[in-house]
Amino acid sequence: MKFRPCIDIHNGKVKQLVGGSLKDKGNQADENFVSEKDAAYYANLYKKDGIKGGHIIILNAGGSEFFKKSKKQALAAIKAYPNGMQIGGGVTAINADDYIRAGATHVIVTSFVFKDGRVNYGNLKSLVKAVGKEHIVLDLSCRKKDGQYYIVTDRWQKFTDEVVNLETLKKLSEYCDEFLVHGVDVEGKSGGMEEELVEMLSKFTDIPITYAGGIGSKEQIEKFAEISKGNLDFTIGSALDLFGGKLSYDEIVEEYNK
């Protein structure tokens, strides 16, 4: 079980947002933290501390007037820490290789693969052909509806018909190297994780899974370790002192990056 860092970029700035508040219209979101430092600063920090496998996420839609500005920040972070971080946000089979060539270890993909509510295997296979399974992370970020966790796309605004369960994980693991799973309804709230989701994810050990969402204290990290049986990695954003929170980044790195 390791700590995986993050760099979330929205409207050209490094931010921590309340996950379920993102709206493409007006490029709006509820903000927990807006950094005065750029994405490269955080990438250099993670590089200095030797933390690999973190994710950079562009949170603007491709058609947004801010997308190019956010993408520029993301590429600067990759350049600062080549072969150290993953990148997501608007990734397709056409541009995926550009990010890998720029220095990302993996591309993180949701919306390109989950089209019209279902898995688009044509798009998924074209992605594998473009960069190879070993460079793909599928983002299965989800929200609960009718007692089940459904994958959501388009910056977590649209529900698909795909349920996150062991069968789905098994099926999709044939096309990727890792999974990234945000518990969207608790993302950015530091009020506790989606325990039911964490418990289910921990039962799948074929490929690495990183969980993000709601972890906001040392006690919650310990609870996460207990529920996940140490089988999952984790991300903390808003709760870290790096992003205006109370949890010591240095202490987390010291304890969970050995």
TrEMBL record:
The gene is hisA. This is Phosphoribosylformimino-5-aminoimidazole carboxamide ribotide isomerase. Signal peptide: none annotated. One of its GO terms (cellular component) is cytoplasm. It comes from the Bacteria. Belongs to the HisA/HisF family. One of its GO terms (biological process) is L-tryptophan biosynthetic process. CDD domains: HisA_HisF. The keyword Amino-acid biosynthesis applies. Keywords: Amino-acid biosynthesis, Histidine biosynthesis, Isomerase. GO terms for molecular function: 1-(5-phosphoribosyl)-5-[(5-phosphoribosylamino)methylideneamino]imidazole-4-carboxamide isomerase activity. Pathway: Amino-acid biosynthesis.
